[in-house]
Amino acid sequence: MPAGPAHSARTRPTHLIVSLDTKDRAQAIAWRDAAVNASKRPENMQPPMVKLGLEFTYAQGLEAVSEVAGDLPLFLDLKLHDIPNTVASAIGSLARVRPAMLTIHASGGRAMIAAARRAVDDAFPEGARPLLLAVTVLTSLDAEALHETGVESSVADQVVRLGRLAVSAGADGLVCSPHEIGLLRAALGEEPVLVVPGIRPAGSAAGDQKRIMTPAQAHAAGADYIVVGRPITRAPDPAAAAAAIMAELLA
User: Fold this and answer.
1) What is the pTM of this model?
2) Which of the four, 31, 161, 189, 204, has the lowest number of CB atoms within 10 Å?
3) Each residue of 215-244: pLDDT tens digit?
4) Distance CA 143, CA 124 (A)
5) How far apart are alpha carbons 57 and 181 in whole angstroms?
C-alpha cells in the first residue's frame, strides 16, 4: 500500500510511546529508564510515553503499573471488551492508576463505548481524564484472518466502519494500523487522536505485525502517536534506538 504523503507535508507532531512488553517488573523499569535517557533524546522532544498492557498488568497488578510508569504519562492498553456495565465499572477501578490513555475495543458496540465515555467522565477529575481510545482492527489481523471471524468486509472498510462508530459514540480517538491512518483522516478529519502500533524502523523484523510502516511514514500519514516495542527494548542500546526514532519523527 502507499505510504501516504511526503514526510515534509506533515506539520503536526507525532509522539513516541515505548511498549514495555514483559512480565518482569525490574525489566520493565530498566527498559523505561533506558528509553527515556535524557542525555540521548533530541533536545526539543519530550520524553516518550510508556505503554503497559495485559502481559505486565496480569503478572504484576495495578500497583506495579503505577510504579513502572512513575512520572511518565501512561498508555494503559487493556483493550476492555465486555457488557457496558462491566466495562464502565472496570474503568472506574483504573482511576487510581491515572492513565493518560486507555483502550477499549470498538467492536464492543455503541452502548459499550458510550458507557466507557460516561465512566471516564465520572471516574476521573476534569483535567486528569485519560484519552479514551477504541481499537479498530488488531494489527496482527490481515484480510484472511478477518474473514475467518465472519467479517466479510475488507480490513480497510472494517476499520473505517468501527472508527466512525467509536468516535460518534464518544471515543477521543482510535488505535489503528499505519495503513489505515489516511483512510481515517479522510473519513473523520484531524480531530480524533490516532495511536498507531505496527511501527518498525527500516531494517527491523516485522514480528507478528502484518500491517506495518516506518516511523517517518506513519508521521507523514498523520499519526499522533506511534507505539514501538521490540525495536527499542530488544536493541543493544535501547536509549539510542529510542533517540533515533524520535529524531526520525523530527526530520
Assistant:
1) 0.89
2) 189
3) 999 999 999 999 999 999 989 888 888 888
4) 38
5) 28
